[in-house]
Amino acid sequence: MTEAEIAVFGGAHIDRRGRISGTTAPGSSNPGTWFEEAGGGGFNAARNLARLGHGVRMISTRGGDAAGEMVTAAAAAAGVIDSPLTFLDRQTPSYTAILENDGNLVIALADMDLYRLFSPRQLQRRALRDVLATSRLVLTDANLPEETIAALAKTSAGHGSVVAGIAVSPAKVIRYRPCLNDLSFLFMNESEARTLTGRQATEAAEWPELLRHVGLRGGVVTRGGRAVVAFEGERSCVITPPALPELADVTGAGDALASGFLSAYLSGHGIADCLRHGIAAAGITLRSPLAASEEMSAANLEQALALVPASEMLS
User: What is the DSSP letter of 100?
Assistant: First the structure.
């Protein structure tokens, strides 16, 4: 395999979103529009990081079908080194959502069974052992099985890599519980943080201590348009994201924040600057109809940083 400084594991599948044009009529046919693109938390982050100038390898399970070819093409377009574990007789995973006219979710169907075949044994492949031994950053989302995430985090931490996770959903974030001590950072929203800790924070500044209590050494908690908090060890900071005049689609914004944060971290920035980079990257994605914006670049990120206020360090 060609060398890359970042290895990303997890979701690389098809996202389908149908938006109802008028008032939702349950139990009947609704006129609307349909949109389909390659997606997945890990894959969104991989494409963002590649567009920010990093050498990135994506490793995920994939079927031998047209959807799998669509993911392959999207990886090539973003400059991601694509290394799938392909099961020719299976279907590529997919996520299908039906949205109301205002963007609220009506119902969704996640066909993710193929990810269960990414067992810890797959990590024993010579090629994957080499990838883990040479990557500065190993990033995974929670689409993989719990035991695979744990093995991945333990092995990568043992090599001295930065190890990061993307929560994906409240139902899946608990898959990180066995390996929280091996993670450098976990990126999550407030609902996912609440599931992980079993607690509710009334202020952003309360999350670092609650997450440290369950064994996490570093992380970021997003709260919609409200203050975002990041911490590493005993250091923590908050930023209230700038209001955007118009939102195209919120899909992928959290993955973009993780990408911008980790890109800055690999460049030697402290968490205060990393959080600013993450929020700037999320802003680029929020202005795009795509989950991984084609406008993501180092130059555009630098421009977006001008809109992000300074971090407030917490004692």
Answer: -
| Residue 27, domain member (yes or no) | no
Average pLDDT over residues 175-200: 96
What's at 178, amino acid-wise? P
Report the percentage of the chain scoring pLDDT > 70: 97
Number of helices followed by number of strands (H, E) in the chain: 10, 16
Residue 257's nearest CA partner among 162, 176, 186, 198 is 186
Q: Cβ of 48: how many Cβ atoms within 10 Å?
A: 32
Q: What is the CATH number of the domain that holds 97?
A: 3.40.1190.20
Quote the domain boundaries for residue 162.
Answer: 6-22+32-314
- pTM (whole model) above 0.90: yes
Question: Which CA distances in Å does 233 have to 21, 60, 147, 236, 296?
Answer: 47, 31, 25, 8, 30
The total of structural domains in the chain comes to 1
